[in-house]
Write a structure and sequence with these properties.
Blueprint (H helix, E strand, L loop, with lengths): L1 H18 L3 H15 L1 H4 L17 H6 L3 H7 L1 H4 L5 H15 L11 H8 L6 H19 L1
Length: 145
């Protein structure tokens, strides 16, 4: 008699998870993908590891707003080589940009097709590209004053 009691909750959980496609389900799936594929280096809150892994908090939106920055975010090795489908990466990146912010004005969601194209040309050495983008970000702040 105990077996049906155990299987019923599992069936309900998997049934609900399989049919959910709304914003809450997409956010939950992105969070799970982040937990499984990203937080080992970027830590649960996105702060990274000083000198080794960049802090994403308050940064991703700035990168996404720069020419070449949006592309950079998908082309970094951790994203491009993640064992996720292109649609999963698109969902994860859309969630991350919103979560780590700030959300740039006019931000358009990544699509699976865009991710496919960007992942094909992943960055083997992202450091120099990141440095150029950080310099452009600093210059944009100076000009905004």
């Amino acid at each position: 008699m105990r077996r049906p009691v155990v299987l019923l909750p599992l069936a309900l959980v998997f049934g609900v998870a399989a049919t959910g496609t709304g914003p809450d389900e997409r956010a939950h799936r992105a969070w799970v993908d982040y937990a499984l594929h990203c937080q080992g280096c970027h830590l649960p809150d996105g702060r990274g590891m000083a000198g080794k892994v960049p802090d994403m908090r308050g940064q991703l939106g700035h990168f996404a707003a720069l020419p070449g920055g949006r592309e950079y975010l998908v082309r970094v090795p951790g994203v491009s080589t993640a064992r996720l489908s292109d649609a999963d990466v698109a969902r994860l990146m859309n969630w991350l940009v919103r979560r780590m912010g700030p959300l740039p004005a006019g931000f358009e969601d990544y699509t699976a097709e865009e991710v496919t194209r960007l992942r094909a040309d992943w960055l083997r050495s992202p450091g120099p590209v990141r440095a150029q983008l950080k310099a452009a970000m600093a210059e944009a702040r100076v000009q905004a004053r």
